[in-house]
Amino acid sequence: MTATLVTGIGELVTNDPAHDGPLGLVHDAALVATDGRVSWVGRSQDAPDADRRVDLEGRAVVPGFVDSHSHLVFAGDRSAEFAARMTGEPYDGGGIAVSVEATRAASDDELRVLLARRVAEMRAQGTTTIEIKSGYGLDVTHEERALRLARELTDETTFLGAHVVPPEARDDRAAYVDLVVGDMLTACAPHARWIDVFCEPHSAHAFTEEESRRVLRAGLDAGLLARVHGNQLGPGPGVGLAVELGAASVDHCTYLSDDDVDALCGSDTVATLLPGVEFSTRSPYPDARRLLDAGVTVALASDCNPGTCYSSSIPLAIALAVREMGMTPAEALQAATLGSARSLRRDDVGHLRVGARADLTVLDAPSYLHIPYRVGVPLARALDL
Ligand SMILES: N=CN[C@@H](CCC(=O)O)C(=O)O
Ligand SMILES: [Zn+2]
């Protein structure tokens, strides 16, 4: 057993209601990590002895960010598509086919290098738990490969064979859905914890309510847990379907009806907001205030992907949530930690109570308030203990 005492923490965010305020703040704090788990939290002056000591010299510490929505397994470049968005070109998911072609053409080792770089980029910005989706293979071989490679880096892997209908299957959508719920699911399920679908009537490339229900039910029957891309491009059935099927999360939630908010309110389905997408597609931001005031659990994630948001920065998502979506800095930080952990049905991350994973993110700043306050400045990094 190796115990490390982290001391000199100017402000510690625990997300533990036993401490101060909604974020469970402790000032002049210390924390002991034993074999990767938090074993003691309190004031520096009361700290026990340990085998090792790390002095953070007054810096703030927050729970490692939990990024519950990313699409990191891709090759190729779509920066020209981003430039077109900035001059008003709308997003409809059609560009996904460009990433599919480049991803299929890449070797396993090329994809491994790209993935490792993106995961390292996330850790360097304070993210310690990462969900990764497939969705740029869209045939049995390449979807299976995407999940197998993602599994080398995280247990939170999501089968997204129903991302869009690939170009070669456009004349027979039904046959493609058959493939997703048949051979593709069989090949992918051993490497996945989750099943997801892009349920979006406003995109000819994505899936209808009925198609989405079929995909999710098949995944649930195969032992996977459900999450949904819903209500991204306009009002739609995604939220209702996610709640109906007990999905852990419905992600985007940019366009919500009163019924959607009511349904989320009485459910265990988390609303995951992805403001980097609205930033990078020049779209209206979701109304986080409305969800929070209704009592819905809200998560924030990056949605790092080559089309709608090629940013892996959770600090940016927090800053946008505060500046554009009516969240307080405390609500935004909690959504990117505890809320995101709930959306992955995890209770060992997203907080720093005794027993949690010792996933600490250090800020080169005295307070968590500096995350949105010093927008664009790289303050946060995951602490290697
Ligand atoms: N909307 C569907 N999927 C991604 C975008 C994928 C892409 O355009 O490459 C998203 O979450 O925004
Ligand atoms: Zn996505």
UniProtKB/TrEMBL annotation:
<keyword id="KW-0378">Hydrolase</keyword>
<feature type="binding site">
    <location>
        <position position="69"/>
    </location>
    <ligand>
        <name>Zn(2+)</name>
    </ligand>
</feature>
<feature type="binding site">
    <location>
        <position position="71"/>
    </location>
    <ligand>
        <name>Fe(3+)</name>
    </ligand>
</feature>
<keyword id="KW-0963">Cytoplasm</keyword>
<feature type="domain" description="Amidohydrolase-related">
    <location>
        <begin position="61"/>
        <end position="365"/>
    </location>
</feature>
<feature type="binding site">
    <location>
        <position position="136"/>
    </location>
    <ligand>
        <name>4-imidazolone-5-propanoate</name>
    </ligand>
</feature>
<feature type="binding site">
    <location>
        <position position="308"/>
    </location>
    <ligand>
        <name>4-imidazolone-5-propanoate</name>
    </ligand>
</feature>
<dbReference type="InterPro" id="IPR032466">
    <property type="entry name" value="Metal_Hydrolase"/>
</dbReference>
<feature type="binding site">
    <location>
        <position position="136"/>
    </location>
    <ligand>
        <name>N-formimidoyl-L-glutamate</name>
    </ligand>
</feature>
<keyword id="KW-0479">Metal-binding</keyword>
<feature type="binding site">
    <location>
        <position position="229"/>
    </location>
    <ligand>
        <name>Zn(2+)</name>
    </ligand>
</feature>
<keyword id="KW-0862">Zinc</keyword>
<keyword id="KW-0369">Histidine metabolism</keyword>
<protein>
    <recommendedName>
        <fullName>Imidazolonepropionase</fullName>
        <ecNumber>3.5.2.7</ecNumber>
    </recommendedName>
</protein>
<dbReference type="InterPro" id="IPR005920">
    <property type="entry name" value="HutI"/>
</dbReference>
<feature type="binding site">
    <location>
        <position position="229"/>
    </location>
    <ligand>
        <name>Fe(3+)</name>
    </ligand>
</feature>
<comment type="pathway">
    <text>Amino-acid degradation; L-histidine degradation into L-glutamate; N-formimidoyl-L-glutamate from L-histidine: step 3/3.</text>
</comment>
<dbReference type="InterPro" id="IPR006680">
    <property type="entry name" value="Amidohydro-rel"/>
</dbReference>
<keyword id="KW-0408">Iron</keyword>
<feature type="binding site">
    <location>
        <position position="303"/>
    </location>
    <ligand>
        <name>Fe(3+)</name>
    </ligand>
</feature>
<feature type="binding site">
    <location>
        <position position="71"/>
    </location>
    <ligand>
        <name>Zn(2+)</name>
    </ligand>
</feature>
<dbReference type="Pfam" id="PF01979">
    <property type="entry name" value="Amidohydro_1"/>
</dbReference>
<comment type="similarity">
    <text>Belongs to the metallo-dependent hydrolases superfamily. HutI family.</text>
</comment>
<comment type="function">
    <text>Catalyzes the hydrolytic cleavage of the carbon-nitrogen bond in imidazolone-5-propanoate to yield N-formimidoyl-L-glutamate. It is the third step in the universal histidine degradation pathway.</text>
</comment>
<feature type="binding site">
    <location>
        <position position="303"/>
    </location>
    <ligand>
        <name>Zn(2+)</name>
    </ligand>
</feature>
<feature type="binding site">
    <location>
        <position position="69"/>
    </location>
    <ligand>
        <name>Fe(3+)</name>
    </ligand>
</feature>
<feature type="binding site">
    <location>
        <position position="163"/>
    </location>
    <ligand>
        <name>4-imidazolone-5-propanoate</name>
    </ligand>
</feature>
<feature type="binding site">
    <location>
        <position position="305"/>
    </location>
    <ligand>
        <name>N-formimidoyl-L-glutamate</name>
    </ligand>
</feature>
<feature type="binding site">
    <location>
        <position position="78"/>
    </location>
    <ligand>
        <name>4-imidazolone-5-propanoate</name>
    </ligand>
</feature>
<dbReference type="InterPro" id="IPR011059">
    <property type="entry name" value="Metal-dep_hydrolase_composite"/>
</dbReference>
<feature type="binding site">
    <location>
        <position position="232"/>
    </location>
    <ligand>
        <name>4-imidazolone-5-propanoate</name>
    </ligand>
</feature>
<feature type="binding site">
    <location>
        <position position="307"/>
    </location>
    <ligand>
        <name>N-formimidoyl-L-glutamate</name>
    </ligand>
</feature>
<dbReference type="GO" id="GO:0050480">
    <property type="term" value="F:imidazolonepropionase activity"/>
</dbReference>
